[in-house]
Amino acid sequence: MSEETPNRPAFVPLHDHGVISRYRAYLPVTEATPVISLNEGSTPLIHSPRLSEKAGAEVFIKYEGLNPTCSFKDRGMTVAISKAVEAGAHTAICASTGNTSAAAAAYAARAGIQCAVILPAGKIASGKLVQAFLYGAKVIAINDNFDTALQLVRDLGDISGIEIVNSINPHRIEGQKTAAFEIVEELGDAPDLHILPVGNAGNITAYWKGYREFHAAGRSQTLPRMHGFQAAGSAPIFHQRIITDPNTIATAIRIGNPASWEGASEALNTSAGRIDIVTDEEILEAQSWLARHEGIFVEPASAASVAGLFKLGRPEARRIVLTVTGHGLKDPDTALTSGTYRPLDVEANVDAIRRVLGS
């Protein structure tokens, strides 16, 4: 083959273009850190004209569902797993309501180390659970909630060679802050208002950290107000107390004792932001509205930020960013069972179809 095509260049693989590669100077990595990446990050910031009209401001959607495992968790996981491998870990372990398990399993597979996931039995969306299985994780279900699962993970994390990759691991927050960097780079500055769903509260903590770091480095002129929205049945920060039995259709934020509670409170207080709640009905309505009017399909937890904007109405802001954290295909069952979605049964002829179309 080489004699027949002597001038053909050798194949050269593309370099990694993930968040460590792009933002190495802002991350806790060195030349000794093995970069475990799936080219995460660089997700679209989508201008949303109909949301803008409703809000009386320019509204942008940061669509994190287009990360490799279809959620924002990949940003933190690339750093957490890279540092775990650097430290010599043979196992990554996490508690999860779904998205963390998918990301941890994928990046552990990429790194060639074991992944163990502890999760609440029967409370994980199928689109997330199947990811953990297929990526090869050891999935352990317990008859309790996420907060108990996280405590078990904390206990197991003391064992040599096991690395916790939940957001209590500071490397997760470091990776997740890169989403704020991307927003500033695309808009030219921070937005006036940033709205996020809040579950374990690591993401709002991370975004605020990212905005402050770019501001301190002279990369942005302003800082945003950070607004977080929790599901009404799972709102410990809003109620200022641990919720022992959190309940919401938005499984990704069904958490009663957030690990990053303190960081989220700092983000809310120092940015002059607020924490509020939205009901499951408001979440599902927002999920459907976003799909039908902006063409963006997100999982229920992601729609909490959209429901939050609807609740705020027309806030005092010129530019608003909403983070939607996970793709809608993470949890298709909830969408199917909560709405009246079914095909229109018609005869197989043009006239019957035209009647359905009204033409």
Give the key terms.
Rossmann fold; four-stranded parallel β-sheet; 2 domains; alpha/beta; 10 strands
Short characterization:
The chain is an alpha/beta fold and 359 residues long.
Please outline the helices and strands.
Layout: H1 19-23, E1 45-47, H2 49-55, E2 58-63, H3 73-86, E3 91-95, H4 99-111, E4 114-120, H5 126-134, E5 138-142, H6 146-156, E6 162-164, H7 170-176, H8 178-187, E7 193-197, H9 202-216, E8 225-231, H10 236-239, H11 261-270, E9 274-278, H12 280-294, H13 303-312, E10 319-324, H14 332-338, H15 350-357
Parallel strand pairs: 2-10, 3-4, 3-6, 4-5, 7-8, 7-10, 8-9
Antiparallel strand pairs: 1-2
Helix pairs in contact: 3-4, 3-7, 4-5, 7-9, 8-9, 9-11, 12-13
**Share of helical residues:** 40-55%
Write the CATH fold name of the largest domain: Rossmann fold
pLDDT < 50 stretches:
1-6
Kindly state the number of beta strands: 10
CA distance, first residue to last residue: 59 Å
Query: Element order, helices and strands?
Result: HEHEHEHEHEHEHHEHEHHEHHEHH
Strand order of the largest sheet: 1-2-10-7-8-9
**How many separate structural domains?**
2
How much beta, percentage-wise? 5-15%
* 3D shape: globular
Average of the residue pLDDT scores = 93
Largest sheet: 6 strands, mixed
Descriptive report:
The protein has 359 residues and is α/β, with parallel strands linked by helices. It has two domains: 220 residues, Rossmann fold (3-Layer(aba) Sandwich); 97 residues, 3-Layer(aba) Sandwich (Rossmann fold). Helix content is 40%, strand content 14%. The chain is built from 15 helices and ten strands. The protein has a six-stranded mixed β-sheet, sandwiched between helices. Strands 5-4-3-6 form a four-stranded parallel β-sheet. β3, α4 and β4 form a beta-alpha-beta unit. α3 packs across α7, α7 crosses α9 and α9 packs across α11. The longest helix is centred in the middle third of the chain and has 15 residues. The radius of gyration is 21 Å and the shape is globular. It starts with 18 loop residues before the first helix and ends with a helix. The N terminus is likely disordered.
